[in-house]
Amino acid sequence: THPTRIVLQSFEYILICLSCFILLYYRCAIRRRTAKIRKPVAPGEHDDLRVGILGLGHLGKQLCLALLEKTKIKPSHIKISTRRPELAVEFVHTEVECFFDNRRLAAWADVLFLCCLPSQIPKVCVDLRSHLAKHCLVYSFTSAIPVTRLAKLLGHDYILKPKYDVVSCDTVDVWLSCSHVASALADPLLIEASCPLTMKGGISLGLNWVCAVLYILLNICTSASLGSSEALLLIKSIFKEKCGDTVQLNAHSFINSSYASSLLSDEPFPWISLMDAQIRETPLLRFLSSSKSVQQCLSAAYKSQMETPAK
Ligand SMILES: *[C@@H]1O[C@H](CO)[C@@H](O)[C@H](O)[C@H]1NC(C)=O
Prior knowledge:
Elements: H1 3-36, E1 51-54, H2 58-70, E2 78-81, E3 97-99, H3 102-108, E4 111-114, H4 121-128, E5 137-140, H5 147-154, E6 159-160, E7 164-166, H6 181-184, H7 188-194, E8 203-205, H8 207-223, H9 228-243, H10 251-254, H11 257-262, H12 274-279, H13 283-289, H14 292-307
Helix pairs in contact: 1-2, 1-8, 8-9, 9-14
This protein binds 2-acetamido-2-deoxy-beta-D-glucopyranose.
2-acetamido-2-deoxy-beta-D-glucopyranose (NAG) binds next to α11.
């Protein structure tokens, strides 16, 4: 395999785990907080993150194994839709369910990973269209198809796609030993190299991607009807362990000044479009670009998440 491909793929896996992990972390935190304010749980509401994987080639398999090994996601909360479910031998003795029904997967999942080949995407989108739950986050690995086109094909714009900045440097070698994600995730050198916003492995995720992930966290708070000040406290709690209270995030860091100034503390943030977060310059992008110290805190939080065994 071409080394660059290995680099890109390993990097993707690792970051997927990160985003799932943090999503889950937030769900739990929100649950604890809502329990504190005794918000009744509506019928049909569920607390644990439900992860759908569409496609079970090399990518889908590695992703599923890494999620089982490195995150707290319950095996019964992972489902896979694949044309050949009988080939999913690795998962027979787990509670991971495999079937071939893309629509059922779409209607069930909170996060849906598209792990199919780029050539299968148009057909898959026809299947999924109008079956995705409203706030289902679709994670696309396909770099060949821009998010805006994918949004049109799916009729759904809650989509995240990794976008890399590749720079030349002399430490790209660290990636060459990496072919399986689970082992990569145990390697401190690779964790260091995969850290968002740092350049050690010659490749990094752009600030736009990091902003989109933070906006997803904000949206999770909004869909749980948390007031803006509670939401900010939760977001700041990521940085707390590594950076204490030095990170000065407020409503203005996330949304425009006119909206932020009139936002009441018990009023939820507005729903943030992921398209805007990935394509346009947002208040958060301006804030992060101008603050090296917050970038360093994000990197530190990432490393500590990745280095802590999940189980
Ligand atoms: C400010 O943000 C709100 C919510 O995201 C948006 O609806 C509004 O159009 C924005 N206003 C300006 C002037 O950008």
